[in-house]
Design brief:
By secondary structure, the protein is α/β, with parallel strands linked by helices. A 9-stranded mixed beta sheet has the order 1-2-6-5-4-3-7-8-9, sandwiched between helices. Strands 10-12-11 form a 3-stranded antiparallel beta sheet. Helix 10 links the parallel strand 7 and strand 8. Helix 1 packs across helix 4, helix 6 runs parallel beside helix 7 and helix 9 packs across helix 10. About 5% of the residues have low confidence.
Length: about 375
């Protein structure tokens, strides 16, 4: 059930965080909640002694933002939009681990943003037939090899919209990260695809309604595309472009980066070829190699065991702490390490040892992005 005070408080802080992101994140962690930050806004140096004067003044004046935020929340609730605070279980946990993650996201859709496998496909807005064919073949094969993968992109012309449409065509959920609020759509020509995505994925943004799709917002949204994914796949790119920026951000987040090579001299393969040559991306030619590199191959023996109904009695007995981990994953599988630690009430350094023991017992499997999967 939504805590309205906390959501409104977080949305107010999110408005302030544009110029004070690191400090707002620190305050949020130290205070334990957005509401606690606002409750102490007049003595904020009790929480952060070295808070700068601009932040102190911004917090003292933050109540002026409340009417706009309350209006936003009302709009969201009336239009099927969910505000997701960074501490929410539905907030993309991979993104939450990034230092510059938005404090609040707005989501309209029906998919799980924390699927065990999330990738983004990015590239030029002027993709060629070659790029379109690459996406078509790659996603058709990926849907067979890893059917629960979430496809993320930015709904722009070219590679983005092709990735979304091919994901839908192959039964894969797909999410578009937008550079504006959810009361509008840019480009308008992609509205039909966006509408279909709401039922098979969704639309995600850090921006409140009445926010224009300004150039800087496209740059900012790239960090969300990168941060919420296990891997970035650059399909086609010239020497400069948003796809290369997303790939660079992904590397900074320690995500896997792949690129499809192109013919030497082709304008929209120059960025991919150079990134591969500089060891900034793994050369990618097909979905099979991608799945293998990510460690996402299906364990045939485990699949057979599930189908035959083999029960967990074959596994050794658990200690009390191991049983806690198993019970948490039984109720909410595929959790990131930090989220698992929170739900188990076990410190991360102790939890890593327990997870290692459970892996040795064949109970838990490590997935890409630091996610742990209970083998049912």
């Amino acid at each position: 059930m939504m805590n309205e005070k906390e959501v409104i408080s977080a949305m107010i802080l999110a408005r302030l965080s544009y110029y004070h992101l690191a400090a707002i994140h620190q305050l949020y962690r130290e205070a334990g909640s957005a509401a606690a930050v606002l409750d102490n806004r007049n003595n904020i140096r009790d929480i952060i002694p070295d808070a700068n004067n601009r932040l102190v003044e911004a917090l003292r004046d933050c109540e002026a933002i409340r009417p706009r935020v309350e209006e936003e929340l009302s709009y969201d609730l009336n239009h099927g939009i969910r505000p997701l605070i960074i501490s929410d279980v539905d907030y993309p946990h991979r993104l939450a681990e990034c230092d510059d993650a938005p404090l609040v996201l707005f989501f309209k859709g029906n998919t799980d943003l924390n699927k065990s496998r999330v990738i983004n496909l990015v590239g030029t807005r002027k993709c060629t037939v070659y790029g379109q064919d690459l996406i078509q073949r790659f996603l058709a094969d990926l849907s067979r090899l890893s059917p629960d993968t979430l496809i993320v992109s930015g709904l722009a012309y070219g590679i983005d919209i092709c990735a979304h449409r091919q994901a839908l065509a192959n039964g894969l959920d797909t999410v578009a990260v937008l550079a504006h609020g959810l009361d509008d759509l840019y480009p308008h020509t992609h509205r039909a695809t966006a509408t279909e995505m709401i039922g098979h994925g969704g639309l995600l943004t850090e921006f409140m309604t009445r926010t224009n799709a300004d150039k800087i917002n496209f740059v900012r949204r790239n960090r969300i595309v990168a941060g919420m994914s296990d891997a970035c796949i650059l399909v086609e790119s010239a020497k400069k472009g948003g796809g290369l920026i997303t790939a660079e951000i992904s590397r900074g987040y320690d995500r896997e980066v792949f690129a499809f090579p192109g013919r030497i001299g082709d304008t929209y393969s120059e960025g991919c070829n150079q990134l591969i040559a500089d060891n900034g991306a793994v050369l990618l030619t097909n979905a099979e190699d991608f799945v293998k590199t990510m460690g996402w191959e299906t364990d045939a023996s485990l699949e057979k065991a599930r189908k035959e109904g083999i029960e967990r009695v074959m596994f050794p007995e658990f200690s009390d702490e191991e049983a806690t981990v198993v019970n948490v994953l039984s109720n909410n599988n595929d959790l990131h390490l930090n989220m698992l630690a929170t739900q188990c009430g076990i410190p991360v350094n102790q939890l890593t040892g327990l997870l290692f023991e459970l892996e040795m017992k064949g109970v838990v499997r490590t997935m890409a992005g630091g996610v742990y999967h209970l083998l049912k």
